[in-house]
Design goal:
The complex is a heterodimer of chains A (about 475) and B (about 160). Chain A has about 475 residues and is an alpha+beta fold. In chain A, about 40% of the residues lie in helices and about 20% in strands. Chain A contains 15 helices and 15 strands. Chain A has helices at about 15-25, 75-85, 160, 165-175, 180-195, 205-230, 235-255, 275-300, 305-310, 320-325, 330-335, 365-385, 435-445, 455-460, 465-470; strands at about 5-10, 30-35, 40-45, 50-55, 65, 90, 115-120, 135-140, 145-150, 200, 270, 395, 400-410, 415-425, 425-435. A 4-stranded mixed beta sheet of chain A has the order 1-4-3-2. Chain B has about 160 residues and is α/β, with parallel strands linked by helices. Chain B has one domain (about 20-155): Rossmann fold. Classes of the chains: A alpha+beta (about 475), B alpha/beta (about 160).
Chain lengths: ~475, ~160
């Protein structure tokens, strides 16, 4: 049994803010999230496998020192905090709007000038069944110089609605953020609430949640491979993987009663039960999906057109991935050896090792190839978990009344972190920083130098959610 | 592509889908703030296991070619203008369908100041598809049932 991780809360004076963050990074901790607190302060969460540190500072004169020079990944976070609270970040210039939608395009886009440079505006509504969001491509001919994404068209204020809610309602709001990451987001929030209360899940609860997370990953990963095929207009690949996704979702419904596993995660408890007969059926189905995914992918890959389109498209260089905090399959495909599952004492991933691509080329081929590898691991984890019956679980401990907790979960798209403030049975603050949120700046960077017609393909190879960014 | 071809042929045989009464309608989908669940299930409708196209229903890339506006999500204040623009771009006669509990105003919607919906208060809804999210069968059945009745009564001189 792994030791209970420790969450330390540290209040920092404004003038030491930047140095304290830098010091913890030097100690080997990694950036987890940056957000506003219910009290109007700014807080930065950093963690390593042994401990989580929550640094908090009060803005002086409405300003806090920016940390983007040492944490490039915090760029969007600082812009969002500024839009939500008006807090300024010293050294982050220009602090362009992210959540706010100004009427003048020049107020939020990067200034681009030169001969034959023009803008291509796409969205917020798109030509297919796609989530809403706006893209502003700065192009010369068909070559993309720069992409400015403008999301938050789907902003529903879910975090604001969670303030003052019961833990159960907060969890339902987190589930509503995104269907494709529903388990990830709810497990992260449940873990954060349990962390705040000083509770630790027992073995049954950890196994149940891990199973749900891997079921979620399985249907997402096969969906994403199909989506990449759609990105090059390869209908047969798209349809074949759509069928695998359908099989995975029907398995979800058989095991839990819901195709997206809604309603399966609760705070402090799990009611999920899978008996020997259901487990045997699940093992057969998962083995079939795994075998078919491998065979069908091999056939897609035999197609020279498909290979040529995937290779070298939308390359995210290792240095850019590192600087922008890319994570999940996108980060790993660019050689970032990181997976939150490696150190997840609140889940059941003992002995887990992150998938490594054959060549971390950072292109569409690497991102899709990595998912193919992860499907194999995912099927093995599910098979292992249901080899013994899944029974109800609960937490041990949990008598702390007031506190702040952090939950970190590897979603199909990357690291998802939840920070929750609990006060006498009520949630006073909730913040979700999803794997999609972490990777959007990296997606924009990967488009630089690509041709505009490759954007759907590059976009699908990341397959980031808009819903759990917008919240 | 032999493996893909053989696999898909097998899927088609196993699904045993019948040909339906032929309609002909183009659907324009607008995500007005959904969690993406309705989009996943609508996408599944067009896949090999449900194949909504066999009834003559297809997704249109532009509202200008569409008969039906299929809307998901609670209608956020930020999506309201784009939703109205899509509706106004459609030729008449046109129908609005609400896909999912959020669009129907009975879901868990978030901060009231960020939500302009439900859809019913913004556009005239003719077809309702409840569920969170509705399954692909639900979507297909509601669309076909709803359109069958609505098209008959809405068509002038029919």
């Amino acid at each position: 049994m792994t030791a209970v991780p420790i969450t330390e809360a540290v209040a920092v004076d404004g003038w030491r803010w930047h140095d304290r963050v830098a010091g913890l990074l030097d100690d080997g901790l990694r950036f987890v999230s940056l957000s506003g607190t219910p009290d109007g302060d700014v807080r930065c969460v950093l963690a390593d496998p042994e401990r989580t540190v929550v640094l908090t500072t009060a803005p002086a004169g409405g300003r806090v020192a920016s940390i983007i020079d040492i944490v490039g990944a915090a760029g969007w976070d600082e812009r969002e905090i500024h839009d939500r609270t008006g807090i300024g970040f010293e050294g982050h210039e220009p602090l362009r709007p992210l959540l706010r939608h100004p009427s003048a395009t020049s107020d939020w886009t990067t200034p681009v000038a030169g001969a034959d440079v023009h803008d291509v505006a796409v969205g917020p509504t798109h030509a297919g069944i796609i989530e809403s969001g706006h893209f502003r491509f700065h192009v010369v001919g068909e070559r993309i110089l720069l992409l400015d994404p403008q999301l938050f068209y789907k902003h529903r204020g879910l975090e604001a609605a969670a303030a003052g809610a019961s833990p159960e309602l907060a969890l339902r709001l987190a589930q509503r953020a995104c269907a494709a990451c529903a388990v990830t987001n709810t497990v992260a929030v449940a873990q954060a609430i349990e962390d705040a209360r000083g509770a630790m899940p027992d073995a049954e609860l950890r196994r149940a949640r891990t199973l749900l997370l891997e079921l979620e990953r399985l249907y997402n990963h096969v969906n994403d491979i199909g989506a990449v095929c759609a990105g090059i207009g390869f209908a047969m690949g798209n349809m074949a993987f759509a069928e695998l996704k359908e099989r995975a979702q029907r398995l979800n419904a058989t095991l839990t009663g819901h195709r997206f596993l809604f309603g399966t995660v609760a705070v402090g408890t799990s009611e999920l039960e899978i008996d020997a007969a259901a487990a045997a059926g699940a093992r057969t189905t998962v083995a079939g999906i795994g075998a078919d995914a491998a065979a069908l992918w091999a056939d897609v890959h035999r197609n020279r057109t498909a290979r040529t389109r995937f290779r070298g498209a939308g390359t995210l260089a290792h240095a850019d991935a590192l600087a922008l905090g890319a994570c999940g399959p996108a980060g790993r495909a660019s050689g970032i050896d990181d997976d939150a599952r490696v150190a997840s004492p609140r889940l059941w991933y003992d002995g887990f090792a992150a998938a490594r691509p054959e060549a971390p080329t950072g292109d569409v081929a690497a991102r899709i190839g990595l998912r193919v590898l992860e499907i194999v691991a995912c099927c093995a984890i599910i098979d292992d978990l249901v080899s013994a019956p899944i029974t109800p679980g609960r937490v041990r401990g949990g008598n702390v009344d007031v506190g702040t907790g952090v939950g970190v979960v590897e979603s199909p798209r990357g690291r998802t972190a939840a920070i929750v403030d609990v006060h006498a049975g009520t949630i006073t603050g909730m913040h979700l920083r999803t794997g999609s949120y972490a990777n959007w700046p990296a997606l924009a960077a990967a488009c630089t130098g690509a041709i505009l017609p490759d954007f759907p393909l590059i976009n699908k190879s990341f397959e980031l959610c808009y819903a759990c960014v917008d919240r | 592509m032999f493996v893909l071809f053989r696999h898909l042929a097998g899927v088609r045989r196993a699904a045993g889908l019948r040909r339906g009464a032929p309609l002909s309608a183009a659907i324009r989908h607008v995500d007005a703030g959904s969690c993406n669940g309705c989009e996943h299930e609508l996408g599944a409708c067009l896949g090999p296991m449900y194949d909504l196209q066999r009834f003559g229903l297809a997704i249109s890339a532009s509202p200008r070619h569409a008969d039906i506006l299929l809307v998901t999500g609670p209608v956020t204040t930020r999506m309201r203008p784009a939703l109205l623009a899509a509706y106004q771009a459609m030729p008449e006669p046109r129908l609005v369908a609400a896909l999912g509990d959020c669009a129907l105003g009975c879901g868990l919607l978030g901060d009231p100041s960020e939500v302009a919906g439900p859809l019913e208060e913004i556009l005239p809804v003719a077809v309702r598809i409840p569920g969170c999210p509705p399954t692909p069968e639900d979507i297909a059945r509601c669309l076909l049932d709803g359109l069958d009745g609505t098209l008959q009564t809405a068509t002038p001189g029919a």
